[in-house]
Amino acid sequence: MVILITGAKGQLGNEIKLILENKRADIGEISKEIISSKFIFMDSSRLDISNLEKVNKVLTRITPDVVINCAAFTNVDRCEENKELAFKANSFGPRNLAIVCEKIKAKLVQISTDYVFSSKGKDPLREYDETKPCNTYGKTKLMGENFVRDFCSRYFIIRTSWLYGHVGKNFVYTIMKLAKEKENLKVVNDQEGNPTNANDLAYHILKIISTENYGIYNCTGKGEVTRYDFAKEIIRLSKIDCKITPCTSDEFKTKAKRPNYSCLDNMMLSCTIGDKMRFWKEALNSFINDINK
After folding, report:
1. What SS3 class is residue 139?
2. What are the residue numbers of the active site?
3. Where are the beta strands (DSSP E) in 127-242?
4. Which residue ranges make up each domain of the chain?
5. Nearest to residue 108, comparing CAs of 157, 46, 180, 175?
6. What homologous superfamily does CATH list for 2-169+195-221+263-278?
7. How far apart are CA 144 and CA 165, in angstroms?
């Protein structure tokens, strides 16, 4: 099997590389079929997914069996400042990949987000629940999902949330950095979600691509937590001397609005390949132990 990874230098692409090097993920071994597959990692300098002509040229030459699209514009606040760039990366890019994947009969994995939802409830959201994004990032990612569904028949749309990995920017690294610089941090206490270790997500992606269980999946860490309690656990495990104080979203103004509640239920995983995602505290502890080494 030939597997092409776009956006390969991001935290998810990097995590896939680590799993292949170790021949296993933190939560389990990888199949022999995946280990023996040919992986091609491409970043934006080698493949600009917003350019249909280039996507067609590259994919037609390589003819991968699977394309895993890890390329995205994920800076939520900057998406509000540059809507065109967000649309190109998060909507038009997946559209181009979907068109060419259908042409060459390749499977397409599109990584999406909990921000396609904007719930004020307290029930975890399932794959069939109504989407209603409240910011540009969520809107462009939802349009990317829709393009994939419109133009490709062999797709896996995988929604994740609060993702952190060993490279790039994420909430875990941000809190650790700020905690070392300041004695007191304010973190919002009215946004709930599911922290997700990128290694766990990568494991499930590498498992699902060997199947034909096409459709939309939620794939997040187990357990619900506020940003404030997530930050407290990061500080506790990192053993950094810093006080964390709760605040509201209204006190901590950002350019992009965030949903108050975007917790997901991994129902589709449970019904197909099985849900082995770890509880968020266990996965976070494993991650911080790794980086401390």
Report:
1. helix
2. 137
3. 155-160, 163-164, 184-188, 192-193, 196-197, 215-218, 225-226
4. 2-169+195-221+263-278
5. 157
6. NAD(P)-binding Rossmann-like Domain (3.40.50.720)
7. 23
CA dist 189 and 17 (Å) reads 35
Q: What is the pTM of this model?
A: 0.96
**Tokens describing residue 244:** 């964390």
74: tokens are 């994920």
Question: And the tokens for 146?
Answer: 């829709």
Q: Is the separation of the CB atoms in 102 and 152 below 8 Å?
A: yes
- Residues 268/218, Cβ–Cβ less than 8 Å: yes
Nearest to 5 by CA among 57, 65, 69, 83: 69
**Considering only CA atoms, which of 216, 201, 210 is closest in space to residue 276?**
201
pLDDT per residue, tens digit, the chain (293 aa), is 999 999 999 999 999 999 999 999 999 999 999 999 999 999 989 999 999 999 999 999 999 999 999 999 999 999 999 999 999 999 999 999 999 999 999 999 999 999 999 877 789 999 999 999 999 999 999 999 999 999 999 999 999 999 999 998 999 999 999 999 998 999 999 999 999 999 999 999 999 999 999 999 999 999 999 999 999 999 999 999 999 999 999 888 888 899 999 999 999 999 999 999 999 999 999 999 998 87
CA-CA distance, 103 to 107, in Å (whole number)?
11
Q: What is the secondary structure of 41-75 as a DSSP string?
A: EE-TTT--TT-HHHHHHHHHHH--SEEEE------
Phi, psi of 240 (to 5 degrees): -100, 135
Helix (H) or strand (E) holding 203: helix 198-208
